[in-house]
Sequence to fold (77 residues):
Amino acid sequence: MSSSSKCPGCGAASIFQHRYVDAGSGRGPQLLPDLGGVGSYGTFTVFVCTDCGLTRFYAEPLTRAQVQQSPDWTRVS
Fold:
C-alpha cells in the first residue's frame, strides 16, 4: 500500500502514512519482539484511511530482514 493508492476497504483516496513506528512503544501490544536489537522491537510504517478507518501495518525493510535471522521467529510456509 502506498500513500497515493486507494483504500482497499472503501475506495477512498484518503490514505495517510506514518513511518518508523516502534512496535513496542508501551502504548499497545509488543509486536515484532527481538527484531530491533536486544530487548527492543522492529518498526512499522502505518497507513490509515481517514474515510473508513482501515489501518494497515507494514514492517520496515530492516525489520523484515531480521525476521529470517532471528531464532525467535519460525517460518510458517
Residues 61-69 form the longest helix (9 residues).
